[in-house]
Amino acid sequence: MRFVLFVVALFLAAPAAAQGIQQTKGNYEDKFRQLDEVLPTPNTYRNASGAPGHEYWQQKVDYRITAALDEPRRRITARATIRYTNNSPDALPWLWMQLDQNIFRTDSMAELTDAFGGPGRRGPKVSLGSANEPTRLSMDELRRQQAMADNTYGYDINAVRLMDGADLPHTIVGTLMRIDLPAPLAPGETTEFTIDWAFNIVEEDAVVARSGYEHFPDDPRKGGNDIFLLAQWFPRMVVYSDYEGWHNKEFLGRGEFTLEFGDYEVEMTVPDDHIVASTGVLQNPDAVLTATQRQRIEAAKNADAPMFIVTPAEAAAAERGNPRGTKTWKFSAQNVRDFAWASSRKFMWDAQGVKQPGAEHETVLAMSFWPKEGGELWRKYSTAAVVHTLKVYSRFSFDYPYPTAQSVNGPVGGMEYPMITFNGPRTTLNKDGTRTYSLAEKMFLVGVVIHEIGHIYFPMTVNSDERQWTWMDEGLNSFLDSVAGYEWDPDMPWTRSLPRDMVSYMVSSQQEPIMTQSDSVTNLGANAYGKPSAALHLLRDTIIGRERFDFALKEYARRWKFKRPTPADFFRTMEEASGTDLDWFWRGWFYTTDHVDISLDSIYRLRIDTNDPDIDLPRRRAERAAEPEVVGIGLNEQQRLPIWVMENPGVTDFYDKNDEFTVTPKDRKSYASFLEGLDPWERKVFDRAVKEDANYYVLNFSNKGGLVMPIILGLTFKDGKTEKLTIPAEIWRRNAHDVAKLLVFPKGKELVQVVVDPDWETGDADIENNHYPRRIIPSRIEAFKSERSKSRVSRDLMGEAAGAEPDGRK
């Protein structure tokens, strides 16, 4: 396609004019509208830059707990002394506590609102059925129903008292409890009270929870053995924050927790042959460990590889024996938001020191606890993955803030708490007594350890609200665990982390905005883990660039370490620290269900018309000659039909030797007149354009998915060379539906192919409309044999009744 110079200006101006009209007419959408009207107004607690304000505050809660594990009854009995400090500017007439074990009561809101066949609580799946399929109840679900029927779960709150022994009035509301104070707790004041409670520990394999016990009936010890994972095991103070007041949303199982920081002194009395792993630092090793085990711990602090503290042989001996009494393990933890522990005689235990020169904790003990069922998989990879995680995450945030980091094997697939995580993968026991594992189990272990240890940074230290905004910890952590995963081994087939992994979810009808509250999300894994991770990868590798992104993320982590950020704080910090307006990105990825699908609809190649008839008219003649011949003329030639003018030369004239492209003196005079009419600057521009004879390409794009994104182009030229060009997302700012872009290349540099998103960076849903010219779509022929119907009417019941065994042939 050709154009004269003045047409260039008209062509480039036209889209702008049309887009300007669309601002007030038609289907205009402002994808770049700022989020100011959506985000909370900055204040003295949280400022406009995303940093804590100069009057930022948060409450402090300290716990002293004594607990006893009754192994035969699988029951916890405990007492806590709780010291609550009101750092808010408000007087508090009451306090609220979380009673998370109450979720397992048969009359709990979680149990009563669990929709059959729908997403929701962790645990066995059931099928609602359809016209062609029956409604189904799995064996796992039957087991759960029977466990709930056979046991009484939930807290027994035996007493709530002031320190002088006076009873405190309290009201239980599902998984919450209100404690009415004798007088409002004024700003800056502290109150202290005690609470006595007990509860039956759920069997995690039956009920499916975030904690519980696992029974091993086949262990050598008569009656078998158990692993106890204790979390959400004590009444915990509900958060009181500047942005919500009391966080009184019921615990329904999906939305996790947000908690207050404080100091803990905890004593757990357990059978004397148990090993306890716990949040905090062991305060009485002389009373619960052997001298040899204590020596091993000291040696492990400077070891280059994990060292056994409790060996396989010692764990095996404990498994076969019986306790002679009890031991009390004492742990202390400072500035943590929660406390969890595990106890079993089955545990092996290894440890390795991780050095952090100049940090508050210069040596961190990375540790793992696992039974023999974990096998070589755990020995090789658990503590190693802990060490790797600390090194990667600290690079993106801050030095690991605690003295220990632990991975404990048990029935919970993956859960996180300060300094301790519960992780599930195990080996397979073979008939010859060996234990082996699949690549999937190896990936699961390495991946889940990285993920759960990573949670000690987010949200155990950067204390986001998991129940309200699950993506703030799960999504951010999934992003970082994928970074750590690829740094562990890039050849392992990691999934659900990159934009390309999320295409099927982002085009599905089951998608909800990332900002949806967790208990309302249909597909929590994709919504809160995968899609936010994909968004952050896109920001880091494509939109902002690694250097500025990493700086901004580290600033966010530093600002909100041991504090409680909201989404607005994250969004504002990332923009402020990176120097990039990202409101369009947050709006599209986090507040809508749009997906990425940019189509390259057409490309026009334009070259300059010289207006010189001695140049342009011969070129136009050549272009005409290159056009396909009229079909009828070709058929006439095949039939050898005579041509009149060739058989009758007398009828020829001037036009038989000169066509419409013949140059005349008038053409040359018009050309000279055109040149004389140009202003000096126009003549200069025109002469240069003619001399350069550049290739002008106009690329027309349409946004079919709705999500505005940078347009990344893979360009292939006639000489075989390739280039990559990124057009910022702001090209869509005036028209989010259709845009055109002019690309100019020097003479001789001719485009032959353009591909949008050639490296699949953006998660474009339809890669076939990314190619211009369109490519032949690659596919496969799958050879298969049709299966016979499995319905009973299609079976040979006659033969089966007679005991016949068909040979499989028809």
From TrEMBL:
Molecular function (GO) terms for this protein are: metalloaminopeptidase activity; peptide binding; zinc ion binding
Under the heading SUPFAM superfamilies, the entry gives: Metalloproteases ('zincins'), catalytic domain
Peptidase M1 membrane alanine aminopeptidase domain boundaries:
387-589
Q: Which InterPro entries match?
A: Peptidase_M1_aminopeptidases, Peptidase_M1_dom, Peptidase_M4/M1_CTD_sf
Give the record's keywords alphabetically.
Aminopeptidase, Hydrolase, Protease, Signal
Q: Where is the composition biased (Basic and acidic residues)?
A: 787-798
Q: Which domain of life is it from?
A: Bacteria
The signal peptide, as residue positions, is: 1-18
Where is the segment annotated Disordered? 787-810
For this entry, list what GO says about its biological process.
peptide catabolic process
Q: What CDD domains does this protein's entry cite?
A: M1_APN_like
- Tell me which PANTHER family the record gives: PROTEASE M1 ZINC METALLOPROTEASE, PUROMYCIN-SENSITIVE AMINOPEPTIDASE-RELATED
Q: What is the protein name given in its UniProt record?
A: Putative Zn-dependent aminopeptidase
The organism is Erythrobacter dokdonensis DSW-74
What does the organism's lineage look like at the top? Answer: Bacteria, Pseudomonadati, Pseudomonadota, Alphaproteobacteria, Sphingomonadales
